[in-house]
């Protein structure tokens, strides 16, 4: 954040000052929407959500060191009052970018965004000052909050951009116009809000490459036909990446290593270099090559990129997060979110990790799957059976029951259990687990299975 007085911020966002003793008081730290994360000298954005109204936490934020509150009404403490807090944050972020000059990198996709962002940030941090999206703060509030962490020293600004519906990426790229745009894949995540199928998702995701300037770079996944179809929607120079032989940045000689990790040869226009990832699952190769594509157009050579990827570690919780218990039980917490693509990847990664050990899947619903939801859950049940998991615990009514029924039908010898909620899942899993088991816990975030995973890991 570049230092700005409250008066300056008010002019930028079109707000008015209330209960402010010193209009020249300076905001020197980033903004936050969680009062517990306010930094001294920062700005607290009092966003009103479906369940929580940030205005109620304004006094606590000021007590925690915030200079003022960005609010939609007076709150009895120093405040910048605006019509819409979300829009005001976007205006402030855009103003900041007009006064500093980082390379803005936007990335989107149906799955893998956060892991790719984390890998890319760790590669670029070894090269220059880098600010990247924290956790999965990739929406209308999260993106400007990320931008507002940048300052005059920031060279690379890595922005994960989520799209729940058409128009979202147009809005986000309006706040932070990217020079480099990376599209990972097109799947069925958010299909309920985007349209009838992958073509509708592709239309929404392609808004990112449409926003790129003529002297920018569009990095497209050569292995995904829907992403390939975006080539005609951008003015920017296109670089293809993936595992296809025609990709300019690609992975060759992919192989599994100890603990279900992967190694490959990174091939770029600057040369070749070996990569050994610390993340589990073969699907991580695609994420790593995507990060490598960005680093390539930014001028890093193959050896620099490979070194960064090999040194990278998991940063974001709830994404194939591994915990080892004293009794030899391994808990894999992949419960941050779930779609058919990420569910397949998680199940396969855990089976590879387990080897000959007993495997347990604690699975909840995958959200936003529209009319095909029941069929997609049944497909996941059949995959659990085909992969020969020993135990399936399906959590919740409706679609998880379809998953359980399909699994039982495909493999009658597998132990299949259905439970109503997270508490019952935890109780049953605790009772069923045996020393040495490998357990995958996965569902869409709103199901709350992350709490089950954490409890099992601490048992």
TrEMBL record:
Pfam families: Mur_ligase, Mur_ligase_C, Mur_ligase_M
Sequence ranges assigned to domain Mur ligase N-terminal catalytic in this UniProt record: 33-77
Keywords, sorted A to Z: ATP-binding, Cell cycle, Cell division, Cell shape, Cell wall biogenesis/degradation, Cytoplasm, Ligase, Nucleotide-binding, Peptidoglycan synthesis
CC annotations in GO: cytoplasm
PANTHER family: UDP-N-ACETYLMURAMOYL-TRIPEPTIDE--D-ALANYL-D-ALANINE LIGASE (PTHR43024)
Functional note: Involved in cell wall formation. Catalyzes the final step in the synthesis of UDP-N-acetylmuramoyl-pentapeptide, the precursor of murein.
Protein name according to UniProt: UDP-N-acetylmuramoyl-tripeptide--D-alanyl-D-alanine ligase
Taxonomic source organism: Nonomuraea longispora
Biological classification of the source: Bacteria, Bacillati, Actinomycetota, Actinomycetes, Streptosporangiales
Gene expressing this chain: murF
